[in-house]
Amino acid sequence: MKLNSMPAGGLLRGAAIALAALLTGCAGYSGSDLIAGKSTAAEVQASMGVPAERLALPGGDSVWYYPRGEGRHTFAVTLGPDGVLRGIDQRLTLANVAKLVQGRSTAKEVRELLGPPPTVRPFPRLQRYVWIYPMLLDEDPRILWVQFSSDDIAREIIETHDDRAEAASMN
Q1: What are 85's strand-pairing partners?
Q2: Where are the beta strands (DSSP E) in the chain?
Q3: What span, in angstroms and rounded, lies between the C-alpha atoms of 30 and 23?
Q4: CB–CB of 94/135 below 8 Å?
Q5: Which residues of 45-57 are buried (b: 16+ CB within 10 A; e: fewer)?
Q6: How far apart (Å, rounded) are the C-alpha atoms in residues 123 and 129?
Q7: How far from the centroid of its chain's Cα atoms is residue 81's Cα?
Q8: Are 79 and 65 in contact (CB under 8 A)?
Q9: First-to-last CA distance in the chain?
Q10: How many of the other CB atoms lie within 10 Å of CB of 159?
Q11: 44: Cβ–Cβ under 8 A, 6 or more apart, which residues?
Q12: Contact status, residue 91 vs residue 77, Cβ threshold 8 Å
């Protein structure tokens, strides 16, 4: 019984094309196809799409935020005043979470550091609101909760394992 009538060379060529397509899709996920000091804002947008949020920085730089993977990664693209890429970094990391200071970090500072929150939950009776950031750290699903008071100060910062994500992956 003949299972495949395609010659071996055609199979390899097809696999190579599929792999190239997969890698191209991944490049748009994190911007790994872009080059700091060379790629332009137009090339960033062509590769990664429209940013979820744009932030103007003092001095003319700007940061474009790209939440990915159900919000578990947020890539921050920094562009110079000339519109040329300065760098790309993943913002949802333990190192960045460690920079948050309970009772001192402001909502503005948290948003600049981590990017726009995927979920915002108000608690009007407490006069508080919570930003919820799902994260993926070394394949470990995590959740970061940052609770703010009405003066936009982070009052609670909690980072835990995401049992719901783990349960969903087992189904």
Answers
A1: 79
A2: 53-56, 62-68, 73-79, 85-90, 119-123, 128-137, 140-149, 154-161
A3: 11
A4: no
A5: eebbeebeeebee
A6: 5
A7: 23
A8: no
A9: 36
A10: 16
A11: 31, 34, 64, 77, 79, 85
A12: no
Q: CA 16: distance to chain centroid? A: 28
Give the tens place of pLDDT for each residue, 10-60: 444 433 333 333 433 455 888 999 999 999 999 999 999 999 999 999 999
Q: Which two tokens stand for residue 111?
A: 């948003």
Q: Are 157 and 164 in contact (CB under 8 A)?
A: no
**Which residues make Cβ contacts (< 8 Å) with residue 147, sequence separation at least 6?**
123, 128, 129, 130, 154, 155, 156, 157, 158
Model pLDDT, residue 170: 60
Task: Strand 73-79: give its sheet, edge to edge.
Answer: 53-56, 62-68, 73-79, 85-90
Q: Model-level pTM?
A: 0.79
- Sign of the C-alpha dihedral computed for residues 70, 74, 75 and 76 taken in this order: positive
Q: What is the pLDDT of residue 165?
A: 74
Confidence (pLDDT) at 168: 65
**Bridge partners of 75?**
66, 90
CB 86 within 8 A of CB 80: yes
